[in-house]
Amino acid sequence: xxxxxxxxxxxxxxxxxxxxxxxxxxxxxxxxxxxxxxxxxxxxxxxxxxxxxxxxxxxxxxxxxxxxxxxxxxxxxxxxxxxxxxxxxxxxxxxxxxxxxxxxxxxxxxxxxxxxxxxxxxxxxxxxxxxxxxxxxxxxxxxxxxxxxxxxxxxxxxxxxxxxxxxxxxxxxxxxxxxxxxxxxxxxxxxxxxxxxxxxxxxxxxxxxxxxxxxxxxxxxxxxxxxxxxxxxxxxxxxxxxxxxxxxxxxxxxxxxxxxxxxxxxxxxxxxxxxxxxxxxxxxxxxxxxxxxxxxxxxxxxxxxxxxxxxxxxxxxxxxxxxxxxxxxxxxxxxxxxxxxxxxxxxxxxxxxxxx
Length: 356
Prior knowledge:
Blueprint: E1 13-17, H1 21-33, E2 37-42, H2 45-55, E3 59-62, H3 72-82, E4 87-91, H4 96-103, E5 109-112, H5 117-158, H6 161-170, E6 176-188, H7 191-195, H8 200-220, E7 224-229, E8 232-237, H9 246-267, E9 274-288, E10 294-298, H10 300-310, E11 317-320, H11 321-327, E12 331-340, E13 346-355
Parallel strand pairs: 1-2, 1-3, 3-4, 4-5, 9-11
Antiparallel strand pairs: 6-8, 6-9, 7-8, 9-10, 11-13, 12-13
């Protein structure tokens, strides 16, 4: 056995595609001399496609002109669509047209007969190494793409779609003032007393089931979930995309939330008495934080919406006069009280009875 062995792979399987018997046998001898194994010898393009799929060789050495109707270049093109195998052309055709056609199939080498054994050996070693590196690179690229998809899902769960887009395009989020939005707050009455009756697992399971359902309602009305603070759920509409129907969408979502809780309490072991408040006004919105970014809103509107909740009643949707003026043509509402905001300001409050 010759000392000239492969440094790439001790058991490299090579499929030889050559319709000249003498050259095919010579190639087989040389492959064994290099320390490679010959998977098979075939003479036509049609046959090499079948054998490539069946044998899965590590490398194909193929003539450009073969027996049958299909050329080596055409066969290589078909193989490339099905299986990833490095191909080396070994041919007597060195004209520009043949080489250009061969290039379209992206071969790992194009060697002209009569060939030099050392050149062939080097070409094989380079082809196998290049293919191996390319495969690892493609695998790593796919891994990175999967990681990016997971990151995209995660960041879209944290930040609104439009905010993510701005962050990627500019590298930061510019705070924005919105002249009119609608905010919603929920809170469970006597939460401390109720939670004390549950195990930690029961408490988290109950809240998770409720808030997941709320998430679905928020998505249904294209609203923005802002945060959960303890047992309080905060969401709103009219930001980051401005709209004219944010108030009615928030109110409709609020009604469904209360209906869900009421229905759930009928059969659940634990009853969750919930207040819900809604207010419309101006806010400033932006992103804060470094390692854990949060999209949030600030302003008097936030405080008033929170007070709409705390001054509401269990099972009711309590809205401010500001929200009432935006939805009164679409909802049946009833006045129930006025809330003193400061020494000079009072805000009327309404319970939403139904959608017209």
